[in-house]
Amino acid sequence: MGSTSTFANLRRRLAPMIRPILEHVAPLRMIAVAMLKIKQKGSFQRCGFQFELPSGDFGVTLEAESTGDYEPVTTQMVQSMLEEGMTFIDIGAHVGLFTLPAKKWVGKSGRVVAFEPHPDNFAMLTRNANENNLTAELVNAAVSDVTGEVQLHASTFNSGDHQIYHSGSRKGVGVTCIKLDEFLQEGEKVDLIKMDVQGAEASAFHGMERVLKENQKIKIIWELSPAQLQNAGADAASLLAWLKALGFVFTMIDDVSGDVQVATTEELMNLCPHDSYINILSQRNA
Q1: What is the DSSP secondary structure assignment for residue 110, as one 8-state letter?
Q2: Is 120 helix (H, G, I), strand (E, B) or coil?
């Protein structure tokens, strides 16, 4: 895990500085993306599966091909939680790096539902599932607290950073948006949700309030990014307080350091710098 930790640490430290440059300086972005397209293979093995990855990508592909791994601590945790017959929901599934392994872990009697709004990512997700002969419920939609069509603001250099909420000048792509409370019928069992939606976490949580209340043993692994939440008009402390009021406690999952530790809302705010991000496990005490 050494190379993975070193790379992830550098990425976490440098991303807040590099992202605005690539976002706003078009000539530099075009050169950088072109160089990555030459270097990146766009192919990756993970958890016994072969994945196609986007090339010219400063996000998932750069991390995966540079380290040979992707979010190893979070992956181990997801695997440890899933058993035969469980239901796993992957919100912001990208190209299926968690969707496909989860289907293996829940078995034939289990259920996996993956939501991915961007058409290119969704096409790759579908190809990855087909190439690995896995059947999951793949849904070409965003998850939030509204239904209908919304604008997904696409990043031109990070295929995992497309955002519903964005204050810059990105090109918008019309995508379908759903509320999980409306997608799932009342009483449907959900065991584990993994969510990475680039700042739309608060809205997605509010759109699944019924599901969270019905499933008292549900676990959610989600990415906490205070800056992205703020850009979306939300607040990290308020979101954590809302989840706490629903009975959830929190565990920090740090794929950079390997640390997994129970934390209060105040500790999480201190552990996660405003411009950075960490994965959080939210669950209720037995």
Answers
A1: S
A2: helix
Distances (CA, A) of 84 to 20, 41, 87, 104, 245: 43, 34, 9, 9, 31
CA-CA distance, 26 to 30, in Å (whole number)? 6
- Where is average pLDDT lowest: 15-24, 117-126, 202-211, 234-243? 15-24
282, β-bridge pairs: 220, 250
Strands annotated E in the chain: 43-46, 49-52, 87-91, 111-115, 137-139, 142-143, 148-153, 172-178, 192-195, 219-224, 248-253, 260-263, 278-284
Q: What amino acid is encoded at 267 in this protein?
A: E
Question: Could you write out the DSSP letters of every residue in 23-55?
Answer: HH-HHHHHHHHHHHHHH---EEEETTEEEE--S
Domains of the chain (ranges; CATH) run 71-284 (3.40.50.150)
How far, in Å, CA of 18 to CA of 156, rounded?
14
Strand, helix or coil for residue 193: strand
Three-class SS state of 251: strand
Q: What are the angstrom distances between the C-alpha of 72 and each of 131, 140, 227?
A: 23, 26, 24
The phi and psi torsions of 223 (rounded to 5 degrees) equal -90, 125
Residue of 11, 76, 15 whose CA lies nearest to 275: 15
Provide the whole-model pTM: 0.90
The predicted structure's pLDDT at residue 261: 94
